[in-house]
Design brief:
heterodimer; A: about 80 residues; mainly alpha; 2 helices; about 0% strand; elongated; B: about 400 residues; 22 helices; 2 strands
Chain lengths: ~80, ~400
């Protein structure tokens, strides 16, 4: 019976070890990946962001115009 | 008159055993929890109904097909038998669900702060701590769990339905019904289970910590990330490749933005279809002889312990990281490392707002939350390769 417990503990150590090692590798990999991408492909990124914002503003102004029109037609 | 006796003899009432009656009542309780209490209704409703169907005497919903000696089919089996063997015994359904979950997951908050992956790792202690609890119960002679059973029970602490079902179907199919019911019930109870533990382990000052704004994550990073996870899994932990592979596939469909129809199907239509059959098939494992024993009680207790331990270690890890790193981390986001997406992250946010009503932790907690999904899939891979 205590053999079962020993096996449980070895599973605990192995399992937590693997989870931490793997996720540490993943943290390192992710950080490197982000750095590489932002260094070598960093330039084009702000451009679409720049485009997106006015687009969002347009959407809002359109919404406001529609709302104003609705109010004008239906009164209060 | 004879025919009437035959008909009466085949009626449900005449054949109903006490075990079946109890299981039908348990099925009704699950339906009540799903409908009235809104406990993970998407799963508990099909599970509860499946439990009722499989326990109707004489209906043969879970009957195996019978073949004659020359190989022709004498009696076709029951629906639930087929659904179970096609979908769960094979591991197909949980993997399809994982694909859908991948297609719904946004790794943005995690990519903005990759260190939160450690929180997702720490919370997996709930899984392995519970395994110790289960083998300890066995060694005390209270329960009869093998190491494989213990591992399948521990995975409840991963707080991730498809992972639990996947592991249980491979390691302990007899316990699958109880494990799935425990996993989904406790996931529904996360808003009740977690806050007291989170409050007990943190000071008021810690709960008030505001975190730095997350940076914007580029689309390229989001596309490369699932591919990177896949390569790392392939290199280091192939046993986690079925789960994480499907997860990354779903995520790539979403982030690539070029197959929106497929991504939409994976997260909606296909996910819904699979959920219906997954629930029914899990319910079909709720038969009296598999469920009405002391082991089920043990599974319910251990599953709750798994959630509590995972929450606690997540919070403690966040406190540890706070001591070591310069950027402040609110320990409340540690509890989200148990997965249970997005419920656990919402709980972190709610407890944070209680202490500082300007402190929105939701996006910060989504990082450890999705990291927890990866962490529990990795833990599942370890269990499957160690015991499989």
């Amino acid at each position: 019976m205590s053999e079962l417990l020993t096996e449980g503990f070895s599973l605990l150590i192995m399992g937590m070890g693997t989870v931490f090692v793997f996720l540490t590798v993943l943290v390192i990999g992710t950080t490197l990946m982000s750095r590489v991408i932002n260094r070598f492909f960093g330039q084009p990124e702000p451009e679409p962001r720049g485009k997106r914002r006015p687009a969002a503003a347009e959407d809002l102004s359109e919404l406001a115009a529609v709302a104003a029109a609705v109010k004008a037609v239906h009164g209060h | 008159m004879d025919k009437l006796t035959v008909l009466l003899g085949q009626s449900g009432l005449a054949n109903l055993g006490i075990g079946q009656l109890t299981m039908i009542i348990i099925g009704l309780v699950l339906l009540y929890l799903a409908i009235n209490k809104r406990f993970e209704p998407l799963l508990l409703l099909p599970i509860g109904f499946g439990a009722i169907l499989v326990n109707i005497p004489g209906a043969g919903m879970y009957a195996e097909p019978i073949y004659a000696a020359d190989g022709h089919l004498e009696a076709a089996g029951g629906l639930l038998y087929y659904v179970y063997s096609v979908g769960i015994e094979s591991g197909v359904f949980p993997l399809l669900i994982f694909m859908g979950v991948g297609a719904m997951t946004d790794f943005g908050p995690m990519l903005a702060n990759p260190k939160t992956l450690f929180l997702g790792a720490a919370a997996q202690f709930g899984i392995f701590g519970t395994i110790i609890g289960a083998v300890w119960m066995s060694s005390m002679g209270w329960m009869d769990f093998s190491l494989a059973d213990a591992a399948a029970i521990g995975i409840i602490g991963g707080a991730d339905g498809p992972t639990s079902i996947f592991v249980a179907s491979q390691l302990a199919p007899d316990l699958l019904g109880a494990i799935a019911v425990a996993a989904y019930s406790y996931m529904a109870l996360v808003p009740l289970i977690q806050p007291p533990i989170m409050r007990a382990l943190t000071t008021k000052a810690e709960r008030k910590i505001t975190m730095t704004q997350l940076r914007v994550v580029s689309k390229r990073e989001k596309i490369v990330f699932p591919l990177m996870v896949l390569v790392l899994v392939a290199m280091f932990l192939p046993s986690a490749a079925p789960l994480l592979g499907m997860f990354c596939f779903g995520n790539l469909m979403k982030e690539s933005g070029v197959v929106e129809r497929l991504s939409d199907t994976a997260q909606n239509a296909l996910m819904n279809i699979v959920t219906i059959f997954l629930g029914l098939a899990v319910g079909s494992k709720l038969s009296a002889d598999a469920f009405l024993n002391v082991e089920t009680l043990g599974i319910l207790v251990l599953g709750l312990a798994a959630f509590c331990v995972g929450t606690a270690t997540g919070v403690l890890m966040a406190k540890l990281m706070n001591l070591m790193s310069k950027t402040p981390i609110n320990p409340l986001i540690g509890s989200a490392g148990v997965s249970a997406v997005p419920m656990a992250a919402r709980v972190s946010n709610k407890v944070g707002l209680e202490n500082n009503n300007q402190n929105f932790l939701l996006m910060h907690a989504m990082g450890p939350n999705v990291a927890g999904v990866i962490g529990s899939a990795v833990a599942a891979g370890v269990l499957l390769s160690y015991l499989g």
